[in-house]
Amino acid sequence: MRIIGTKQDLNIEIELLKANKKSIGFVPTMGALHAGHIALVERAVAENDCCIVSIFVNPTQFNNLIDLEKYPRDLDRDAQMLESIGCQLIFAPEASEIYTTDELTGSFDFDFGGLDSVMEGKFRPGHFNGVVQIVSKLFRLIQPDKAYFGEKDFQQLAIIHRMVNIMHFDINIIDCQIVRDESGLAMSSRNERLTEEQHKKAVEISKVLFESRNFVPKMSPDNLNKWVIEQINVFPELNVEYFDIVHSETLQTINSWTSPAVGCIAVFCGEVRLIDNIRYN
Ligand code: PAF
Asked: Is the beta carbon of 28 within 6 A of some atom in ligand 1?
């Protein structure tokens, strides 16, 4: 397995792979890898001739400097994990390799068609501009046949699908199921920042989400929404930032169970912000 830090070296590898007609499976990450990432990489390894993983803590998608600084980074540990499961190449550039100063400080325009005005987009203004900015750059550099994304970031995935359509990328986006630990908590790099006590409380998030399925279709989406928030906010350590039951493609709030529905949630557990979601039909 090779670790590459420059676009120039990456380009040499990509040209070689393309010349030899090798298929490329790509998993974009910000490092601090966990079982959720490993599942994506294992699938990319199994389904392609070459698996490339990017490790880049993308500054333009953070609207909170403390969050960016505290984001866990351990390239050696990540590389060991990736090598052991058959990843062939890691692209781990510095920010200066990816962005010009103007790009780092300026804004990036993309027509989200309303997908960014709700949930994560509402509470983290500019976040998805940064995501589209980096993922489109990585797609151009790596030119993968398939790219793998986890459904935990449900809104991100919907936006990536739109980006691929609008920007005409010839890339197959593979949606991969949420990976949970044995307690049910959705795997996240942020879980590392939870104390043991906080972890025990964070488990309530997925418990409540799973339980909420039992009330469909008896309760209206609006009442179920209130019920979920109440159940989680009962715990003083947990604070729901939003819970929205939305159409799984348009991401707009639904009023009846006739549409494909997914409930998306963001909860503060102490200072750690966790997201999760559940499909209702
Ligand atoms: O989901 C993530 O980890 C990031 O948003 C991504 C897709 C790697 C872009 O920085």
From this structure: yes
What is the atom index within ligand 1 of the atom nearest the CA of 150?
Answer: 1
> What's the number of domains the chain is made of?
2
Per-residue pLDDT reduced to its tens digit, 42-93: 999 999 999 999 999 999 999 888 889 988 899 999 999 999 999 999 999 9
Q: Which of 30, 26, 82 is nearest to 56 (CA)?
A: 30
Pair (160, 26) in one structural domain: yes
- CATH code of the domain covering residue 261: 3.30.1300.10
**Rounded-to-integer distance, Cα 154 and Cα 260, Å:** 14
Domain that holds residue 51: 2-176
In a domain, 181, yes or no: no
User: Ligand 1, residues 26, 27, 30: which to mutate, most atoms within 8 A of Cβ?
Assistant: 30
Separation CA 270–CA 281 (nearest Å): 32
Q: What is the pLDDT of residues 174-214, one digit of tens each?
A: 999 999 999 999 999 889 889 999 999 999 999 999 999 99
> pTM of this prediction?
0.96
The CA distance from 118 to 160, in Å, is: 16
Decide: 266 and 274 in contact? Cβ < 8 Å: yes
Please check whether residue 183 lies inside any domain of the structure. Answer: no
Q: Relative to the CA of 138, which ligand 1 atom is closest? A: 9
Structure tokens, 57: 């803590």
